[in-house]
Amino acid sequence: MPTLPWTTPNAPRPQTRAMVMASRFEVRSLADVPRFFWKSLAAWRQVRTAPGAVGASLIAQPLKRTFWTLSAWESREALYTFAKTEPHYSIMTSLRSTMDNSTFTFWDVPVEELPITWADAKRRLAEQRQADAAPAEGAGA
């Protein structure tokens, strides 16, 4: 399945840190895959010109109904500005009804460690998904 390789929209400033975000999305059915894929390509085009974006990659596994994103940003503010800017904002809201499961994780790294590997991102997402699924401490007590 297609992997859009790491691209660097804006060169990071040396000796700074980048905010990294990885996500994993599952859509409800195979019928939702084409729409999600098409919309994810629009978001991909946007991130390639987004202020503050210092790296991004995408994996689509349509037969598994799963999509993965990985991006690095100059700051958390740059990431949040991107998320609230069109077309990304409308894409997020329009796809909510097609979503089954979503996992997000964030961390920061020295820019010299970019690009982030998919192995690292997937490990962190698995850890986050496990943490999200853990019962709340003290629940039911």
TrEMBL record:
Pfam families: DUF3291
SUPFAM superfamilies (alphabetical): Dimeric alpha+beta barrel
Signal peptide boundaries: none
InterPro entries: Dimeric_a/b-barrel (IPR011008), DUF3291 (IPR021708)
Domain DUF3291: 57-131
Database matches in Gene3D superfamilies: 3.30.70.100
Listed name of the protein: DUF3291 domain-containing protein
Lineage of the organism: Bacteria, Bacillati, Actinomycetota, Actinomycetes, Kitasatosporales
